[in-house]
Amino acid sequence: MEVIDTFTSVFKTAVGRKLSDEEVIQSLTGLCSSYQDVILQCLNGRKEEIRQALVEKTNTVSSAQLQDFDWQLKLALSSDKISSLQTPLLNLDLDVRENGTLKPVSIEMNKEELHSLINTLEAANKVHLP
Fold this sequence. Notes:
It is a single chain. This protein is of the alpha+beta class. The chain contains four helices and three strands. It has helices at about 1-15, 20-25, 35-60, 110-130; strands at about 65-75, 85-100, 100-110. The protein has a three-stranded antiparallel sheet. The longest helix has 27 residues, at about 35-60.
């Protein structure tokens, strides 16, 4: 079972992180070169199937899907505590479909929260794209 778990981990890491053949061989340093070559051939032959299985496993984490979004930029001029606020706010309305049901989600963000969201989405995009 340890061998299966080890190779499963190696295959997931190699495909998920898009490792080169040299990096995969480095992760198999404990094996002789003939075994390394056989494992690399198996990996390269099934790389697309492994990638698809990883994507499907990731998709099962949440069944929610973004259907549509709308945004509005507002300027808060004052509040009940401060007479002069002058703060830009973003209202983000998301239509999320979960288990066949459309659920509206509304988020209000200030400038710092918006920057944090954008940075998070850019980081996720870098991981997703080659």
